[in-house]
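Dear colleague,

Following up on Tuesday's group meeting, I ran the structure prediction for the two-component complex that the binding team flagged. I've pasted the input sequences exactly as they went in, so you can double-check that nothing got truncated or mislabelled along the way. The structure tokens for the whole assembly follow below. Feel free to forward this to whoever is handling the docking comparison.

Inputs:
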Amino acid sequence: MSAVIDTHAGEHHHGPAKGITRWLFTTNHKDIGTMYLVFSFAMFLFGGSMAMVIRAELFQPGLQIVDPEFFNQMTTMHGLIMVFGAVMPAFVGLANWMLPMMVGAPDMALPRMNNWSFWLLPCAFLILASTLFMSGGAPNFGWTFYAPLSTTYGPPSTTFFIFAVHIMGISSIMGAINVIATILNLRAPGMTLMKMPLFVWTWLITAFLLIAVMPVLAGVVTMMLMDINFGTSFFDASGGGDPVLFQHVFWFFGHPEVYIMILPAFGAVSHIIPAFSRKPLFGYASMVYAVGAIALLSFVVWAHHMFTVGIPIAGQLFFMYATMLIAVPTGVKVFNWVATMFRGALTFEAPMLFAVAFVILFTIGGFSGLMLAIAPADFQYHDTYFVVAHFHYVLVPGAIFGIFASAYFWLPKWTGHMYDEALAKTHFWLSFIGMNLAFFPMHFLGLAGMPRRIPDYALQFADFNMVSSIGAFMFGATQLLFLLIVVKCIRGGEQAPAKPWEGAEGLEWTLPSPPPYHSFQTPPEVK
Amino acid sequence: MGVHAMRAGVLAGGLLLPAWSMADWTLNMTPGVTGTSNEIFSLHMTILWICVAIGVVVFGVMFWSILAHRKSEGHKPAHFHENTAVEVAWTIIPFVILVIMAIPATATLVDMYDTEESDIDIKITGYQWKWRYDYINDDFGFFSNMATSQDEIYNRAAKSEHYLLEVDNPLVIPVGKKVRFLVTANDVIHSWWVPAFGVKKDAIPGFINETWTRVDEPGIYRGQCTELCGRDHGFMPVVVKAVPQAEYDAWVQGQLAAAELERQLTEKEWTLEELIERGERVYATACAACHQANGAGIPPTFPALKGSPVVIEDLPAHLDIVVNGVSGTAMQAFGPQLSEADLAAVITYERNAWGNNTGEMVTPKQVFDYKNQQ
């Protein structure tokens, strides 16, 4: 403990630079983490406003607000921005802030690369957003950009989209290398792998997934680039190519990508639930093995996104069985969280509220996932609003509630102030109600036969669409409250102690709040 | 002011009311009218109830903890953090449930893939944004376009009962017969779906997918394209009419006769007015989605035809683009899609509509010769 205080005292002549250069040239993990989080929230609002356009058009049958062409641009850009701009950078931001503090290191292992991997992101998204103003409009082929709609039939801006994806990919891969280097090399003495906090474990596995699949994404967009500009026919049947090849390669990236967006949230929630249950996490070892199993299985299930493309029955059966198998490790995690809460001493501050909602609603998303895994039933669910409901249930209360839970959990540590608990609880309840109102009716719409990605719909879908839009507007507006809470917390508030949560465990809570600029200058000892 | 507000209210209400009165609050999948769709429905209900049961147990324990094990109730935390027996049990039990679930799912899937011994074969081709049905055994085929008017879509007219789910020429099949569908596409990937049959298959350019159905009850069944295929993806419905065998046979004879009549149109002597009149109808179904009813297009993706040099001056280029399409763009080759009469009519219409008053006329014979000289 004394070593920590000494570091704090000795750090005065080695603080951050002043002005804009602090942010442009910084190699500090906390500054970079902050920039990632701010960027991600900005993208969350940007992508969210596109969702508002979509829900406004779908408020009533008929075309009222936008042209179908622009509607398709909105669904595409909403998906791309939320996946690559909001969720992934938010987790990298959390990793930057927390990993060095959790493993007892002064900073990330590769600080200059860290700076570069952040600053590539605004460039990539500037390119992507600029396509909205180009002649022919932004990408309009869905975030899954299936060929040949995205190649032969794509708008001229597709090439810009491809370069934006390349840059995002480079950024993600560098971020992942940094995470792995930090975790494997900078752990405090005594912290063996099986003593690592779960957020560290889940991020380690996520980083390996990123390194495995981001090059595959780069490969598929490069093939598109060749088809569009250099006369190749990877995906063009009339030139001897194969449009289905695109889907195989895309989903070989796409399915692990889904877990990239959820595993770090699993880790964070595995800290928050024990802290507010005042009881150790149930089944630490099985949690680690479950995450490993989910990550491995994620490589052999991709074709469950393609049950209707006409793959042979043997393939169909293999991918159905493999997909159903994922329910086992995922179930283990949910059971462990519930067992952690069981016979604890529970309190419900904002991080816990978001974490409990995470477990319940993510499990509902898991249930619909299991239903989708049943290949014959998927013939009815595929590409309907049932799928839209499913993936929003795993991504909004899954990934995004996980991020909110983490933010409230660690805000006192980051800022040195407590956030406004009453406002935070309001933020939770409005988000919770709005989100369920927006996405639960989509299950019914899908089962009744409404296809996804349509700007207008038959009359029998009118009622639930209106309910869904009202819920979406409510959820969207509520997120401005989060901005207010965070700004208020940064500017002041009750002084936060080193460990503001009674039941919290881990090295990060041994540092003062806010922590010193170079987190641990002397490695702490882990027993 | 008040009067205006009231009028606006009445108008809005009048346009909205039919939507509300016809909407319903359907919560679940419907069993459908085929063996396959019924099997799928029962799988769906089984897995749904399994999920509900697991949910009740898991959330039950969780809510019990939330209510009873609160710090504010003075509950003291226990300290257990593992239990091998419990952990093994909740790994094995879900696995067994999954195996039990996989057995009927496999059986249904095997059945769905059995396209052997069909009575009728129909080739389905997806186009941006319409379907074509070719009756392979009887050697005729036709396009099926959405019949809902632009006025209904843009809220200038009240929406009819089957808004967006009605077509000009539905697919007609006989009841009680095994119908095999060969599904492909001409441009991008589409997906042919009729929920009541439990049939959904992607239509992929360069591939021919197989699927089948046997409908027992006569009726009209509606579905939609379910793979994003561009601007009008939401506007290419599927309508299937299942009729008794005798009615089906009579319909096939009618279609064969109509196809013969269509061929004779090429020989007929046409006047400019006749061609323009026919061309306007062809334009509305084949061209207006992209080039717009007023010929202004949506540049740059869909160029304007009004005042275009190709349309007012260069007749050979006009013929070439309509017949052969423009490769690398959304402009399809309409040569194989439309009859000579329709091609001649639509070209004539385009050269004489929206102020393109060239007075020029292209006859079906000219189109026929143009196609043959290639």
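The mean pLDDT of chain B is 88.

Cheers,
M.
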